[in-house]
Q: What sequence folds into this?
């Protein structure tokens, strides 16, 4: 595979294409046209062709892309087949929901790459209980558990006022990327990644398009 | 304000700029440079200037944008100040977490535009209980409640196997846009909007960038 520096927006679209292809049941003879993939992804067909051409010519003029092969290519490009150890900080309702979701996905799909290795909370009542088969530990054990399981990604689901402190502790323990559900901006050292997950932004985007559509 | 058709990707960035500005405490004299806003948004400065120039010239050469004015402009462009009635389908852990989050935001910020008006579930034990002050109702009451509260946006947090049916019921009741947390593609009539919220895609994106960074 050719190594190219992939722009951020392209990565987002590739992830989206992969999600769509995974939802499709396909046999080795099935093809998908750039127009169909584009419609499902909410972009235009030229964009799909341009994105995929970055990695070589695996489409067929007038027929489209072989679904299984394209899926496999995207998995390789994105490194989406390699297992990644994840830990969740904050075992409240959202943290519990995510822990259950991720462990269930993994149970039913052995190729599912995200493995929840540790859960952290500060509530003594929760320590030692399990969610999805994973034990809840005290935040003071972060360093040890993160090293033991080589955890690189942390999901932050603590209340906003606790998020920065938890993030600092996690960074010191060796976590290098965060998916942050707390509605606050996190200060992190250079080189540490943070992706924000904010339902307010999602709703804002959705209602903007809704209004635009109603005005037409 | 000039009315322009705003491309989808620009809307996503505008929503992101607004989120960043809302997190900044600013007085009427404070400016933010396109470089600073760009760094916080994870794009480049030229992109910020281009996006904002779509709506007029409200930056100042060499100084930047007045924070409060820019925030207000973005609120107007996005229609982010107008209240929107929301309902949540599925009062499991995720639905409960979202209901609590949205109702709390609204309680502490009267300008917070998303108002949870109804919660729906099928579990008889949950019917009649409240989350964040909002009553849980049976899915059979969707039509009545959606009309009564003029609900336009539905958040789907039911298990994947129930998502399509719930979506169909909600569309018939008049809901026009969905934020879908169930990991399935929804079939909706032309004109109905669906935004997918998928933690797997987020984690995939994050780990892709993490690997790319580690290889350098």
A:
């Amino acid at each position: 595979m050719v190594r190219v520096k992939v722009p951020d927006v392209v990565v987002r679209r590739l992830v989206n294409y992969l999600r769509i292809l995974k939802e499709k049941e396909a046999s080795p003879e099935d093809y998908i046209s750039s127009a169909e993939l584009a419609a499902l992804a909410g972009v235009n067909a030229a964009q799909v062709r341009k994105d995929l051409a970055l990695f070589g010519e695996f489409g067929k003029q007038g027929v489209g892309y072989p679904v299984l092969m394209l899926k496999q290519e995207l998995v390789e490009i994105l490194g989406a087949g390699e297992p990644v150890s994840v830990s969740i900080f904050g075992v409240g309702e959202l943290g519990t929901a995510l822990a259950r979701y991720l462990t269930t996905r993994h149970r039913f799909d052995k190729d599912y790459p995200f493995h929840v290795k540790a859960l952290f909370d500060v509530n003594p009542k929760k320590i030692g209980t399990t969610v999805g088969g994973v034990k809840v530990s005290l935040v003071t054990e972060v360093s040890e558990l993160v090293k033991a399981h080589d955890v690189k990604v942390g999901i932050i689901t603590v209340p906003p006022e606790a998020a920065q402190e938890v993030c600092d502790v996690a960074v010191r323990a060796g976590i290098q990327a965060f998916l942050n559900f707390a509605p606050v901006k996190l200060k992190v050292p250079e080189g540490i990644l943070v992706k924000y997950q904010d339902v307010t932004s999602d709703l804002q985007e959705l209602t903007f398009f809704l209004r635009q559509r109603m005005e037409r």
Summary: DSSP finds eight helices and nine strands in chain A. The radius of gyration of chain A is 20 Å.
